[in-house]
Specification:
The structure is a homotrimer of 355-residue chains.
Chain A: E1 7-12, H1 13-19, E2 23-25, E3 31-36, E4 45-48, E5 65-68, E6 78-80, H2 84-95, H3 99-102, E7 106-107, E8 112-113, E9 118-119, E10 124-125, E11 130-131, E12 136-137, E13 142-143, E14 148-149, E15 154-155, E16 160-161, E17 166-167, E18 172-173, E19 178-179, E20 184-187, E21 192-195, E22 198-201, E23 207-210, E24 215-216, E25 221-223, E26 229-232, E27 237-238, E28 243-244, E29 249-250, E30 255-256, E31 261-262, E32 267-268, E33 273-274, E34 279-280, E35 285-286, E36 291-292, E37 297-298, E38 307-309, E39 314-315, H4 316-327, H5 329-342
Parallel strand pairs in A: 3-4, 4-5, 5-6, 7-10, 8-11, 9-12, 10-13, 11-14, 12-15, 13-16, 14-17, 15-18, 16-19, 17-20, 18-23, 19-24, 20-25, 23-26, 24-27, 25-28, 26-29, 27-30, 28-31, 29-32, 30-33, 31-34, 32-35, 33-36, 34-37, 36-38
Antiparallel strand pairs in A: 1-3, 2-6, 21-22, 38-39
Chain lengths: 355, 355, 355
């Protein structure tokens, strides 16, 4: 069973059900040759039906079979499981390409590894990767092509650094960290001293600490601290093109969507979620579990548990009320002018000089 | 005739007119040594006058000569053509540097090409490029330095992949695709399953399909689909630092300006235009021909043909009305307070104690 | 004295005071083993107290000693100086890692340098860097690993190009320019000619000029001009993931925070400051000294000296007034409805049926 785009080694649906510890239901036992989203699925595809009702209903899907919850109605062969999404994820895991094809084991002869670096049973270092002096890589970690690790870096065990990742001196990566292509870890923070003599660079001598099980999407940047550490807490997931400034501290199990930006020295608690393009100013404190909708602009501290949205960032329902009211604003202006003209006195001139 | 920054082999204006199939007009026939924008042009420069009236008028320009439409007034030697901008573009094409200087033909000896890859009469593979197993590159395509193609990728004919492009396994590029430096194609989509046990990664086993004549600007990221394909339709142009999430489908001839972000599973029709920093939420449908102004935040479906702007995204004229009304809002609050104080009484002091 | 994360060779506080030309005060003379921010500092750390009052007061800090102004009260050993921040910066400069460890001197044997390129006493060219024909690099400049310089580029003296920087043909860098990893200089501007025949690419034959003492943060993109030059003025500082479009002109000593985007042909004066995620439309003129708060969207010219904020961009105090008024808008709608119902009659029920 291996990936051929969306495909797989053909299996009967009943066989897939057995793999997933699910219940096979259906009059027929179709041959499954691929997996797909419900809307994209065609003949031979197994799709899953999530908690959200499908936009076009189940009937419109071309899927040969579906993975559903225990009580969902179906109109075709199906696998019943407790959690369809989790079962789908398990199935996708089985369809992942062979990691030895993506990251051929061993150290490629073109890799430039400083004699003082320690590459401890790393299963893969790709072509043209460069590993600086004093850097240590834990067992089972895989590096793609063109990965650049500066000096005195510590990479934990079973990490995955995709092609074209750059990590600068002194940074610390935990275990099972995944970093996607084009990510830059440990560039200088944006710190200057502005005076009449001009703009003077504040040296940035701190590092970045990336804890266990963090994943960072392609093109994102995490700046080194001025002093001390910029920290990404265990289990946090960072999407693409995210900017994390110097001395930022991100808690555990946070999720930051694409193009989010966090300015220097801000602190996020655990379980914080941001939508895309959210901006967080400097020296801000965001409490545990805060959720911020897409493009929210945060310029003040947010207490734990709040769901915020908008620019300025307000509590979600307040923003929705405000957005609804905004659409009535041009009309409101006219209504007030009308009131002023008619207000309570027989003053024929009232309101006449309104623009 | 070749580029020397803005310059070219010197030609008489009448010679340039002949090259462009234009009409030479003027008492003199100046020697043209460069091309430039109207405002930047100096002696020896040929500039073009577009449909927009020049900010400072034609008279302020230092251009030796201009390319203009058939009926435009001129105060200096000129070339008259039907479409000045198109003629200017044609002239710029002649001034492009020699591609053999930018992408020296042949496969550089440092390129690492898997024996199972097929590089079909590619005219150029630059130094330190890496081409994985099973990858196929069509005739006439040029790859710069440090291009990383993973395994099982298909690149069409006459593509241009600038230095430092990364494409991951299984992705599909059509013909005449241009990809600029730093672009990452096919990184994992941002998909997780969050439960009490933590955040579990959903494997992303789909691919990216980039159709013919697409161009993608530097630093942009296009994520692979969870299953199936993330699609960029033929002829679409993507600017720099744009984020395109997993399973997004973009139609034909779209134009997405810099730093636009599109979250997972959204669908854009044909001919969609976004200004800079536009954000589109997940699972959104944008109809054909929709235009969205800079920084617009789109959180719901937009029917074909609409021009939208703002945050929340509203029809353009409604946003402009709302923005105008917004500026009157603080004053409106005072006016309503005045009305409330004065309502139903003839209070001569109404409004006097406003702040 | 060298960096060990935040650390240094241990020195007595009085010795550090002498290095900084400061006044040592205190009953004890503690051994200083590191520097840190006030809030992060622990035993052995020297911290500085800036102009902003510390969030948690000085007393809460674990710092062994502090750098303070001449008149500030202290509760522990201290160094008194005229400008604590400047003294701290000087101290950090002494703690920078040895540049010969970060950029080992000499040209790495794997660097591919065209015979026609001139590398003039460059102290460092890192592994796998590629330098194209006709490119000139001034004395004292250091290039990290995987730096890609195209053809006919001019790099001045004492520049620092971190690993993974890409500069395309014809671009010009002044002296002491610092460019961080992943930056792309000189990609094609986003210029097309749209007609019924489709979208036609306008060749971009201009260059980028980066003047002395500019610093550009990781992942940022600066597009080459259509004709002429995109210019970054002397001393300007650009943060990470910033997009600068073709033919933009940025003045001297500007500071552009992360994820700012500037569309084509806009002009910034000297000393312009943008917060994070600011967007500036095309063909806009921003005067000297303009400051724009985070996420501001600028669609029209801004005169010199203004401080603006918001979307639409308004003068800062107007935006704050508007934001405050916005929160009252839903209530305002109800107040006006109440006025309309009750206007000019003594209606005891006014407002009772509000939603």
């Amino acid at each position: 069973m291996h990936n051929t785009e969306k495909g797989m080694k053909a299996l009967r649906l009943s066989e897939v059900a057995a793999l997933l510890d699910g219940e096979f239901v259906g009059a027929e036992d179709p041959l499954i040759t691929g997996v797909a989203g419900l809307e994209d699925a065609g003949p031979g595809d197994l799709a899953f039906v999530g908690r959200q009702k499908p936009r076009n209903g189940l009937a419109d899907s071309g899927a040969a079979a579906v993975i559903v919850g225990r009580d969902q109605e179906v109109d075709r062969p199906a696998i019943r499981v407790d959690d369809p999404f989790a079962a789908f994820a398990s199935l996708l895991e089985r369809l992942m390409p062979d990691p030895d094809r993506l990251f051929p084991p061993g150290i490629h002869p073109t890799a430039v590894i400083d004699p003082s670096a320690e590459v401890e049973e790393a299963t893969a270092v790709g072509p043209y990767s460069v590993i600086g002096p004093g850097t240590v890589i834990g067992a089972g970690s895989r590096l793609g092509a063109h990965v650049i690790l500066g000096c005195d870096i510590s990479v934990g065990r079973d990490c995955l650094l995709h092609s074209g990742v750059t990590v600068r001196e002194g940074c610390i990566l935990g275990d099972r960290v995944i970093i996607h292509s084009g990510v830059i870890i440990g560039s200088d923070g944006f710190g200057y001293l502005t005076s009449r003599q001009g703009i003077r660079k504040i040296p940035q001598i701190g590092v970045v600490e990336i804890q266990d099980d963090v994943e960072i999407g392609s093109g994102s940047c995490v700046d080194r601290a001025t002093t001390g550490r910029t920290v990404l807490g265990a289990g946090s997931k960072i999407d693409n093109l995210v900017q994390i400034g110097h001395n930022v501290s991100i808690g555990k199990s946070c999720s930051l969507s694409a193009q989010t930006g966090i300015a220097g020295s801000s602190t996020l608690g655990n379980g914080v979620f941001t939508g895309g393009q959210v901006g967080i100013g400097d020296h801000i404190r965001i409490g545990d579990g805060v959720k911020a909708g897409g493009q929210t602009g945060i310029t003040h501290d947010i207490p734990a548990g709040q769901t915020i949205f908008g620019y300025p960032a307000l509590e979600l329902t307040e923003t929705f009320r405000m957005f609804a009211a905004l659409r009535k604003l041009p009309e409101l202006l006219r209504r007030v002018t009308r009131l002023e003209k008619g207000s309570c006195v027989s003053d024929d001139n009232a309101g006449k000089d309104q623009d």
